[in-house]
Amino acid sequence: MNKYNIGQIFFITFIFLSIFIMYQLLKPFGMVIFFALVFYVVLSPLFKKAIGKSYGKEDKISMIKRHTLALLFSLTSLIIFLVPTSLLLYTIIVQLIDISNIGIKYFMNLDFNSILNNDRLRELLSMLPVEISAAEILRRIQDSLLSNLTSVSSYLTQNVAGILKGTGKFVSSFIFMMFSLFFFFVDGEYLKEQVSSLIPIEKKYLDRLFKQASEGIRGIIFGNLFTGIFQGICAFIVYSIFGVTNSLTFALLTIIASFMPIIGTTIIWIPLGVLFIINGEILRAIIFLVVSWFFITIPDNFVRPLLLGNRIELHPLFIFFAILGGVLFFGLSGIILGPLTFILFFEIMRMYNEERLFSDKEEKKRAVNNSVRIRRVNSYKRHHRQNRPNRNNI
Hints:
Keywords: Membrane, Transmembrane, Transmembrane helix. The chain has three domains: about 20-200, no CATH class; about 220-305; about 310-375. About 85% of the residues lie in helices and about 0% in strands. The protein has 14 helices and no strands.
């Protein structure tokens, strides 16, 4: 093994070791940096408009203006987003605990005699090929439901305690995120150039990937998340008007269901309408279903395309499974990282196909040029032989 090979092995080992150490150093702050980057990508167009002609200038006044606006944008955006989100999450957990406790009380006070004396139930049980004790079945169902509801209630109660205990961690993450977002606003372009210089990809393709990633993040936020929030607000209003218990919780479930293709929010409000029918409120159920369809589901058909624009060229089915798989693989950040991975994959494949087609065209062009050159040479040789004087005639 010569000195060149030893040096090459050492260099490659050093690179991988450095990458591993950098990963371990940044791993505790990965989520903080990622969401700060998402905020920066979404708000950077507005930030550039706020700076105006001073953007990109290095004079003292422009620098002071940039730093002041960066601090203002960082603090305001995080407070507006994180504080309501935290309060909403806490409220939803408390409401889920209330729902579990109501279910526990209901099944504990369930009147078995009224159920056992139901003629329809007796008729159904008599049709079965084996003799079954209805009282025993109901008792087992009651025990199972009470056990599950108690487990859910205790689990949620422990989570509320965990949220309260994690207040310090939340505050520290908030500070680190604001710190990162501030420097993204101040030196975002410089950081982008530094990262670009380390990636061994041609600049025109790298710019396309950066642009596609930025448009993809904005599309995911504006097109899907904001559409879901809009539908959730509409759902909360409709549920509150019709007296749905714990309407805020069901509104959040509506937001989550808005990411599902085809069925979407109907998976939430149709069962609620069925509950009205079971309770004997048929007219109320019909009005509720019509109003929910008109004010919750229909807006999705024009709000999402309006916010999404041409940013994401992915089928809703891909988006749904990308979000679902992203959450399972990456956690909370998978809501964005999942679809973003699909977006970049399709863009890379498009670039590869464009480069391959370009290479094929160049190859065909060279082949045609070679063919033309050969024909010209052959034509010249034939012409030279025909015009060469015959020695016998001299």
